[in-house]
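RECORD TYPE: inverse folding
INPUT: structure tokens
STRUCTURE:
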């Protein structure tokens, strides 16, 4: 999973909603060059801009970043402790997969 994966998902969401890069940029308070750069895989958005993109398309960051094929992840019913446990588990899986890929 790389930057192109993020860009592909972002482009798909944008075109699915029939938005131009300019319209999307206006929607979240950026310039269209930033959207183009994200879609081409030249850079990732800042955390603040990632949140704006997620909120704008009503998807999770996990989906956009390629950690999940689900477009959302509802944690509203989880306690803080449960959420932290899930996040630690995801990190464990990522580290395991990273080590596995190196062998």
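DESIGNED SEQUENCE:
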């Amino acid at each position: 999973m790389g930057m192109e994966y993020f860009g592909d998902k972002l482009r798909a969401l944008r075109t699915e909603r029939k938005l131009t890069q300019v319209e999307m940029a206006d929607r979240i308070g950026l310039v269209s060059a930033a959207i183009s750069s994200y879609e081409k895989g030249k850079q990732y958005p800042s955390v603040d801009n990632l949140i704006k993109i997620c909120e704008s398309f009503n998807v999770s960051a996990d989906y956009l970043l390629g950690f999940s094929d689900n477009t959302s992840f509802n944690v509203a019913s989880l306690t803080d402790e449960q959420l932290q446990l899930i996040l630690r588990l995801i990190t464990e899986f990522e580290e395991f997969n990273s080590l596995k890929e190196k062998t």
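NOTES: The mean pLDDT is 84.
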